[in-house]
Write a structure and sequence with these properties.
Its EC number is 2.6.1.19, 2.6.1.22. The protein has 13 helices and 15 strands. With about 450 residues, it is α/β, with parallel strands linked by helices. It has a seven-stranded mixed beta sheet, sandwiched between helices. It binds ligand PLZ. Ligand PLZ binds next to helix 5.
């Protein structure tokens, strides 16, 4: 029995120096990837799905290189994680240096300064200039859970409101906050108590309802069905990610926030997918001057190392008893070293501006397609977080089958695009901010060609 499935003779080193090209040397997936996929099926839980079974050996800039030697254009960033690029040199250097110093102590046993510096940085760059505190965790879901715990402790209330189309994670509490049954919830109940769902603003599908009007509808439902006095927190993605890159109508978030303030409800912004320059602002809340009470961050925070955070008003974050919040690995020193290098890169390389440029290219090209192809029902998003919603051109109904065909055809041509949406009919673009214009345009041309022929 061989333990290693014939690795390539030379494994390229990742990072931006990797040749920035789309290069197909086998069909997708190639033979070595297919062999690994067979081993995956035999060894890994079937519940762990794979979107595109090409097995990666290196990544950097705007490409991923697979074990068969194919170089694919990356328009997904590992779901909005590698904003600074894969194996970004500064991140590699910082993690390598930390690796040689110490790998783990548990911050709540014997602390270290990088955790504090990450907290100070997040307190500075998140919306609002009030006094803030931060706590670090490992995954987006874990941070969401802790934000809810902290809000409950602070308010002494239990109910939590989440929205239609929301995605907040896969743990029991966060799965309960997540809206979509398949594949996230089906068979995994019972769900957490005191979680309530409220209507979202979804301009394409609510007749373009005014944002303030949509918020009043939501508030009325909350008041009637839950009662503000029972509500600890309202959690919302300022642009919904998995739900379909839904940008609420202007005024929706601000009206909800004002109601939360007036009623002592903690407003939690889940910026796990939208955070860190992605939308052409450091945080999506910044576009509408929304200052959340708590903000949840993960994904883009540490260049691919697992780290997440909750940052918020000092009086809320300081409410839990000492020892009430924690975890073995939260704010691990390797992840903190990566985060400090990553966060500095967003600022020093002005990646907010780069995300805007990427957004201009994406929306320009996608709107040009929409002008003649009525199956593109919507082009939406902000910055480097843009999606198209595919519909039946006659009825406007969601077309999930078309969406799957387009994504599969793009994959076969060496372009990694992701789908999303409650109705499975959204193709989303989340390129690393380190991608070149040429690669981005080439990737878009492949998707356009796939759509034209689907
Ligand atoms: N909140 C807004 O987008 C993760 C899910 C991938 P974790 N989104 C990608 C998958 O299929 O599991 C996400 C998010 C928002 C929370 C989360 C959860 O973050 O790091 O995956 O736990």
């Amino acid at each position: 029995m061989t333990l290693v499935a014939s690795p390539p003779t030379t494994v390229p080193v990742g990072g931006p120096s990797l040749p920035q090209e789309r290069r197909l040397v086998t069909s997708i997936p190639g033979p070595k990837s297919q062999a690994l996929q067979a081993r995956k099926t035999a060894a890994v839980s079937a519940g762990v799905g794979v979107t595109l079974p090409v097995y990666i050996v290196a990544g950097g800039g705007g490409v991923l290189v697979d074990i068969d030697g194919n170089s694919l254009i990356d328009l997904g960033s590992g779901i909005a994680v590698t904003g600074v690029g894969n194996s970004a040199p500064r991140v590699v250097e910082a993690v390598a240096a930390q690796l040689a110093q110490f790998t783990h102590t548990c911050f709540t046993v014997a602390p270290y300064d990088s955790y504090i510096e990450v907290a100070e940085t997040l307190n500075r760059i998140t919306p609002g200039d009030h006094a803030k505190r931060t706590a670090l965790f490992n995954s987006g879901a874990e941070a969401v859970e802790n934000a809810v715990k902290i809000a409950r402790h602070y308010t002494g209330r239990q109910a939590v409101v989440a929205f239609d189309h929301a995605y907040h994670g896969r743990t029991t509490l966060t799965m309960s906050l997540t809206a979509k049954n398949q594949p996230y919830k089906n068979g995994f109940g019972p769900f957490a108590a005191e979680v309530y769902r409220a209507p979202m603003s979804y301009p394409l599908r609510d007749g373009g309802l005014d944002g303030v009007v949509a918020a009043k509808r939501t508030i009325s439902q909350i008041e009637k069905q839950i009662g503000a006095e029972n509500l600890a927190a309202l959690i919302i993605e300022p642009i919904q990610g998995e739900g379909g890159f839904i940008v609420p109508a202007a005024g929706f978030l601000a009206t909800l926030l004002a109601w939360c303030r007036a009623n002592g409800v903690v407003f939690i912004a889940d910026e796990v997918q939208t955070g860190f320059a992605r939308t052409g602002a450091m945080f999506a809340c910044d576009h509408e001057d929304i200052v959340p009470d708590l903000i949840v961050m993960a994904k883009g925070i540490a260049g691919g190392l697992p780290l997440s955070a909750v940052t918020g008003r000092a009086e809320i974050m300081d409410a839990p008893q000492a020892g009430g919040i924690g975890g073995t690995y939260g704010g691990n020193p390797l992840a903190c070293a990566a985060a400090l290098a990553t966060l500095d890169t967003y600022e020093s390389e002005n990646l907010v501006q780069r995300a805007r440029e990427i957004g201009t290219i994406l929306t320009g090209r996608l709107n040009a397609i929409r002008a003649f192809d009525k199956r593109v029902g919507d082009v939406r998003g902000r910055g480097a977080m843009i999606a198209i919603e595919l519909v039946d051109s006659a009825t406007g109904e969601p077309d999930a089958a078309l969406t799957s065909r387009v994504a599969a055809a793009a994959h076969a041509q060496g372009v990694i695009v992701l789908t999303c949406g409650t109705y499975g009919n959204v193709i989303r673009f989340l390129p690393p901010l380190s991608i070149s214009d040429d690669l981005l345009v080439e990737g878009l041309q492949v998707v356009a060609h796939a759509l034209a022929n689907a």
